[in-house]
Amino acid sequence: MPLRAKVASSVSRTAAALSRAAGRGDGSVIGGWIGLKIDPDLLAHLSSGRAIALVSGTNGKTTTTRLTAAAMQVLGPVATNSFGANMPTGHTSALAKAGATPYAVLEVDEHYLAQVIDATEPRVVALLNLSRDQLDRAKEVAMMAQLWRTALAAHPDVLVVANADDPMVVWAAEGSTHITWFSAGQRWHDDSWVCPECGSPIERRDAQWWCTGCPLRRPQPQWTVEDDGVVDPTGAWHLVKLQLPGTVNIGNAATALAVAAQFGVRPLEAVPRLATVSSVAGRYAQVDRDGRNIRLLLAKNPASWLEAFDMAEEAPTLLSINARDPDGLDTSWLFDVDFAPLRGRQVFITGDRAYDLAVRLEVNDVPFRHVSTFEEAVRAAPPGRLEVIANYTAFQDIRAELDRVN
Ligand SMILES: [Zn+2]
């Protein structure tokens, strides 16, 4: 690395360490920010010489990044931004902290994908899904897909690993030269009923989908989920035992195996590594308190709520909603979520915007009880499993009450 980049990298590590020592979080944003101020090309310098995979999409990217990094460790040390700091400051900090590793797996905010591809020149880019998120500031889904499509067209050597079940992802990826398709499912269809190519309606039957006005249709995936396992491109089925719940995570595992395979990792070697992941920055963590087994699930937009309902057991459930800056300030998306799967469960609600949620549940015919604190919910729930589903800052608040459980 040039001298300036070495200095920037060293200062970045020190700033991150100071931030951690001062109890101001994990330091991954401030460290990267200072490093990039000293050397604006620091991310490119830190990326050079590494084989890199980028993972992007609206949902599941933190978990998929974690699983992919675990799979890639078959090959040796892997740098990764495992705390979800998924913008260039976080990438810079993660690579500076890791030192010289041959591999890196980076989660990338979907808005920054083009910029991060330019800076890191990745070998692989994995595209998971696109759906509505943070209505007051995120781009429209079709605009995101167009940004991705343009970014990939400018980098024809990138190996694209993409979800065949999401029409927006397929359209974003289809112009690439090297594509591996996986099938990780798509529960949320309401952002892809209209073809991004021609504007005609998209029709669906079972797993298939196709545009009624142009040739865009679901490609044949090489990696698929079958029962509780993953089928690889040779047709071999691998049982995938995870500590993470739900078929959603088997889909994330299929994606991780497909990405790792681009680097030469065989599924047989990678699968046991996936089982070592027990939680991801607090997601899926389980804590026992006062006879309650509390499990934390993060849900931050309509598609991820559908996934959370799939993962949660039929047990008493606490829902917590905030609308602070990282969550987005507009809670009208609550009306896009069908909360009917919660009928029949004991439901508690809390958080800054619990009353917005209350109105939604009332309309949705889901009985609930409002509690003013997390502690009150724990006391009110019967002994046994308590599922907690919360959006971003609400999740972090509850995680803090549980001593920042990982
Ligand atoms: Zn079309």
Automatic annotation (TrEMBL):
Active-site residue numbers: D330
Record carries keyword Transport: no
Top-level enzyme category: ligase
GO BP term, example: regulation of cell shape
GO molecular function, one term: zinc ion binding
Catalytic activity: beta-D-GlcNAc-(1->4)-Mur2Ac(oyl-L-Ala-gamma-D-Glu-L-Lys-D-Ala-D-Ala)-di-trans,octa-cis-undecaprenyl diphosphate + L-glutamine + ATP + H2O = beta-D-GlcNAc-(1->4)-Mur2Ac(oyl-L-Ala-D-isoglutaminyl-L-Lys-D-Ala-D-Ala)-di-trans,octa-cis-undecaprenyl diphosphate + L-glutamate + ADP + phosphate + H(+); beta-D-GlcNAc-(1->4)-Mur2Ac(oyl-L-Ala-gamma-D-Glu-L-Lys-D-Ala-D-Ala)-di-trans,octa-cis-undecaprenyl diphosphate + ATP = beta-D-GlcNAc-(1->4)-Mur2Ac(oyl-L-Ala-gamma-D-O-P-Glu-L-Lys-D-Ala-D-Ala)-di-trans,octa-cis-undecaprenyl diphosphate + ADP; beta-D-GlcNAc-(1->4)-Mur2Ac(oyl-L-Ala-gamma-D-O-P-Glu-L-Lys-D-Ala-D-Ala)-di-trans,octa-cis-undecaprenyl diphosphate + NH4(+) = beta-D-GlcNAc-(1->4)-Mur2Ac(oyl-L-Ala-D-isoglutaminyl-L-Lys-D-Ala-D-Ala)-di-trans,octa-cis-undecaprenyl diphosphate + phosphate + H(+)
SUPFAM superfamilies: MurD-like peptide ligases, catalytic domain
Domain of life: Bacteria
Binding positions for Zn(2+) per the UniProt entry: C195, C198, C211, C214
EC nos: 6.3.5.13
PANTHER family noted in UniProt: LIPID II ISOGLUTAMINYL SYNTHASE (GLUTAMINE-HYDROLYZING) SUBUNIT MURT (PTHR23135:SF7), MUR LIGASE FAMILY MEMBER (PTHR23135)
Protein purpose: The lipid II isoglutaminyl synthase complex catalyzes the formation of alpha-D-isoglutamine in the cell wall lipid II stem peptide. The MurT subunit catalyzes the ATP-dependent amidation of D-glutamate residue of lipid II, converting it to an isoglutamine residue.
Record flagged with keyword tRNA-binding: no
Pathway in which the depicted protein is active: Cell wall biogenesis; peptidoglycan biosynthesis
One Pfam family hit: Mur_ligase_M
Similarity remark: Belongs to the MurCDEF family. MurT subfamily.
Keywords on record: ATP-binding, Cell shape, Cell wall biogenesis/degradation, Ligase, Metal-binding, Nucleotide-binding, Peptidoglycan synthesis, Zinc
Domain Lipid II isoglutaminyl synthase (glutamine-hydrolyzing) subunit MurT C-terminal: 298-394
Family annotation (InterPro entries): Lipid_II_synth_MurT, Mur-like_cat_sf, Mur_ligase_cen, MurT_C
Subunit structure, interactors included: Forms a heterodimer with GatD.
Name used for this protein in its record: Lipid II isoglutaminyl synthase (glutamine-hydrolyzing) subunit MurT
Domain Mur ligase central residue range list: 55-173
